[in-house]
Design goal:
By secondary structure, this protein is of the alpha/beta class. It has a single domain, classed as 2-Layer Sandwich (Transcription Regulator spoIIAA). The chain is built from 6 helices and 5 strands. A hairpin with a 4-residue loop joins strand 1 and strand 2. It is globular.
Amino acid sequence: MHYRKIEERHFARLLIMGRFTGQDADAVREVIAEVKRGAERRYVMDLTGLNFIDSAGIGMLLVINGEAVATGKALAMVVQEGQVKKVITLTRIGMIIPQYDSLDAYVEACVPEVVLAPDPCAPDEDPLAIAARTLTISAA
């Protein structure tokens, strides 16, 4: 397994590619360090580049999620058709790590700044404050 971090406008995408097995502990440590030191509050594990995952890989996804949550970060995953989606569906980890069929579906569901604010969110601005401001402007 190898990964690449892609900084999107309101979140960071971790594009995970290749085969994800028990032999990828070192790469998982790198992903965890990336999430912990990153300034973004939201991370999406884009699993569309994976062509295989085993039970150890599923366990490591849960470890990454646990570490993200422990540092106050939200984690989700994008999964498309194939062996990876079958395994994720069978293990039901989508009940723990929110799962989306596409990056667009994730953005629509989880990035309120995109929907509510004409300008990007300031790094420390609360999305609920943006929503309140938008509603106040709309009511006037």
